[in-house]
Write a structure and sequence with these properties.
It contains 13 helices and 21 strands. With about 500 residues, the protein is α/β, with parallel strands linked by helices. α9 links the parallel β10 and β11. The chain binds nicotinamide-adenine-dinucleotide. Nicotinamide-adenine-dinucleotide binds next to α7 and α8. Keywords: NAD, Oxidoreductase. It comes from Acidovorax kalamii. It holds the Pfam family Aldedh.
C-alpha cells in the first residue's frame, strides 16, 4: 500500500533537500516503504522498493560493468573516486542535514558522517596508485616470483541505519579503485540518504565519462529479503554486511556455503577501563561522548565502564551529574547533544534492559522517556547510567541505546578479563597514565578487540586505520590500512627466465 505523506514543514524541507541533491521525485514518491524521521516520528516519503527480480537484474548490470571496469587502470579508477569526493564536498551541507533528519544525529555528527565519506575518498585516491604486490625471493635460479592484485568482481554492501551513508563509502571508495563494481542495499530505515548518495555518485560518474560503465554503482532499496538476494548470488564474490550480530549469524553461513568472502561488521559491546592514575577530567569527557553521543547508537558506543575502586566514588557521582544535565532533544536545537532513538523497537529494547538491571539490584540513573519533544512516534530518552554490583545480565549483550553499565574493579587483570568476557569484540579503551597498564592493555594478553585505545574512548574512529572487530563482531576490516586487500584477489606468479627447469624442493622428474 502506498500513501502520500502529510504535507508538513519537515516533509517540504526534505523534498527540497532531495531536489537540491538531485534525487528524482519518482524515487521517493508513491512507493511502499515509509521513510521516517526519528526527530518527529513522521513519515517523510513513500519510497518504491525493488523486487528480488530487480535486485538480480542490478547484480547482472554490476557484473557486466565489472568486466569492463577491471580493465581501466587503477589510477584512472582513482580519478572517479576523486570526483566523488568533490561531489560529496559540494553536497556536504545538504547530505549532512539529511542524515540528521533521517537518522536523528546532531548536526556536527551528520556533517561528520559526510566528512568521513570525503576522507575515505581521499584515502582511496592515493591508494589507487599503491595497490602494491610483493616480489618474493625464489629458491630456483633464473626465476622470479611475485604477487599481483586483481579486481575481484561485484562487491555487495548491506548497511545499517546508524551510519546510513558512511559505511557505503568505506566500501565503495575502496572497491572502485580496486576495480570492483558495487551493489548497495541500505537499511530500510534510512532509504532517503541512500537515494541522495546514489544521486551524488551518479554525478561523479557522469563527469568521469565513458570509461565508467553503466551499472558500476547500483542501489537496491528494500527489506532484508532483498539483502538475501545479494547474499546468495554467485556473481557477488565479496559482501560487506554491517548490522547486528543476529544479521551476521544469518548471512555468514550462507556466504560460507558458496565460498564467498564476507566482510562482517557486526554488533559491539565496548568497554573502557578507568585506572587509578587516569586524568579524570579527560576521562569524564571521553566517556560522555563515547557513551551518550549518537544517543548510544554507534557500533563503537561505550556500553561498559570498569572503574577502579580507589576512584569510583570520585568519578561515578560526577558522571551521574553529567548524565542528569546533558541536553536531550531535537538534534537541530542548539545545545542538544543527545537526539532521538531510531524507533519504538529501540526504546522498548532499552526499557527491557533497564528492567533486567533493576531486577539484579542495580542503581539506575536516568533512562526514562523524555516527553514533550517530537510527536507520539518519536522516542527521546535520558541516557542511563547503571551501577551494577557485578558484571552480569544485560551488560553482557549489546542493547542499541544509551545505557552505560558501571562496575568496580580492583586489579587490572580483573578489568581486562571483564573487557574480554563478552561475545562482541569491536572496540575498547583504557584511561591511565601508567605506561605498564596501557601497554598491557594493548598487548597480546590485553584487550581482545579489533580496536584498543588509550586515553580516548572506544568510539569515533578515523578512516586511516582498519576498522572492525573480532569474535561476534564478525572479524571484518574496512576503511584504512590494508583493508583494500579484501576487495581484490591475489595471484602468485612465478616466471622462469632461464633455459633450465629446476623444480622446487629438489624434486626431480626427468622424462
Ligand atoms: P540490522 O541487523 O537490523 O540491519 C542491518 C542491515 O542488514 C539492514 O540493511 C537489513 O535490511 C539487513 N539485514 C538484516 N537481516 C538480514 C539478512 N538475514 N540477510 C540480508 N540482510 C539482512 O541492524 P541495524 O539495526 O540497522 O543496525 C544496528 C546494528 O548494527 C548494531 O548491532 C550495531 O552495532 C551494528 N553496526 C555495526 C557496525 C560495525 O562496523 N561493526 C557499524 C554500524 C552498525
Amino acid at each position: 500500500m502506498s500513501a502520500t505523506p502529510a504535507a508538513t514543514p519537515l516533509v517540504s524541507e526534505v523534498d527540497q533537500l532531495l531536489q537540491s541533491l538531485g534525487v528524482p521525485r519518482a524515487a521517493y514518491n508513491g512507493g511502499t516503504l515509509a521513510a521516517r524521521s526519528p526527530i518527529t516520528g513522521e513519515v517523510l516519503a513513500q519510497v518504491p522498493q525493488q523486487s528480488a527480480a530487480d535486485a538480480t537484474a542490478a547484480i547482472g548490470r554490476a557484473h557486466a560493468a565489472f568486466t569492463a571496469w577491471r580493465n581501466v587502470p587503477a589510477p584512472r579508477r582513482g580519478e572517479l573516486v576523486r570526483l566523488l569526493g568533490e561531489e560529496l564536498r559540494a553536497a556536504k551541507a545538504d547530505l549532512g542535514l539529511l542524515v540528521t533528519i533521517e537518522a536523528g544525529k546532531i548536526p556536527s555528527e551528520g556533517l561528520g558522517e559526510v566528512q568521513e565519506m570525503i576522507d575515505i575518498c581521499d584515502f582511496a585516491v592515493g591508494l589507487s596508485r599503491q595497490l602494491y604486490g610483493l616480489t618474493i625471493a625464489t629458491e630456483r635460479p633464473g626465476h622470479r616470483m611475485m604477487e599481483t592484485w586483481h579486481p575481484l568482481g561485484v562487491c555487495g554492501v548491506i548497511s545499517a541505519f546508524n551510519f546510513p551513508v558512511a559505511v557505503w563509502s568505506w566500501n565503495a571508495a575502496l572497491a572502485l579503485v580496486c576495480g570492483d563494481s558495487v551493489v548497495w542495499k541500505p537499511s530500510e530505515k534510512t532509504p532517503l540518504t541512500a537515494l541522495a548518495t546514489h544521486a551524488i555518485a551518479q554525478r561523479a560518474i557522469a563527469r568521469f565519462g565513458a570509461d565508467a560503465p553503466e551499472g558500476l554503482l547500483e542501489l537496491i532499496v528494500g527489506q532484508r529479503d532483498i539483502g538475501e538476494v545479494l547474499v546468495d548470488d554467485a556473481r557477488v564474490p565479496v559482501l560487506s554486511a554491517t548490522g547486528s550480530t543476529a544479521m551476521g549469524r544469518a548471512v555468514g553461513p550462507r556466504l560460507a556455503a558458496r565460498f564467498a568472502r564476507g566482510i562482517l561488521e557486526l554488533g559491539g559491546n565496548n568497554a573502557a577501563i578507568v585506572a587509578p592514575t587516569a586524568d579524570l577530567n579527560l576521562a569524564l569527557r571521553g566517556i560522555a561522548f563515547a557513551a551518550m553521543g549518537t544517543a548510544g547508537q554507534r557500533c563503537t558506543t561505550l556500553r561498559r565502564l570498569f572503574v577502579h575502586e580507589s576512584i569510583y566514588d570520585q568519578l561515578v557521582p560526577q558522571l551521574a551529574k553529567v548524565y542528569a544535565n546533558v541536553q536531550v532533544g531535537d538534534p537541530r536545537t542548539a545545545g542538544t547533544l543527545v537526539g532521538p532513538l531510531i524507533d519504538r523497537m529501540a526504546f522498548d529494547g532499552m526499557q527491557k534492559a533497564l528492567e533486567q538491571s533493576r531486577a539484579l539490584g542495580a542503581t539506575v540513573h536516568g533512562g526514562g522517556r523524555v516527553e514533550g519533544v517530537g510527536g507520539a512516534d518519536a522516542y527521546y530518552v535520558r541516557p542511563a547510567l547503571v551501577e551494577l554490583q557485578k558484571h552480569e545480565g544485560p551488560a553482557l549483550h549489546e542493547t542499541f541505546a544509551p545505557i552505560l553499565y558501571v562496575v568496580r574493579y580492583s586489579s587490572i587483570d580483573e578489568a581486562i578479563a571483564m573487557n574480554n568476557a563478552v561475545g562482541a569484540g569491536l572496540s575498547s579503551s583504557i584511561f591511565t597514565l601508567n605506561v605498564r597498564e596501557a601497554e598491557l592493555f594493548m598487548s597480546a594478553a590485553g584487550s581482545d578487540c579489533g580496536i584498543a585505545n588509550v586515553n580516548i574512548g572506544p568510539s569515533g574512529a578515523e578512516i586511516g586505520g582498519a576498522f572492525g572487530g573480532e569474535k561476534e563482531t564478525g572479524g571484518g576490516r574496512e576503511a584504512g590500512s590494508d583493508s583494500w586487500k579484501a576487495y581484490m584477489r591475489r595471484a602468485t606468479n612465478t616466471i622462469n627466465y632461464s633455459t633450465a627447469l629446476p623444480l622446487a624442493q629438489g624434486v626431480t622428474f626427468d622424462v
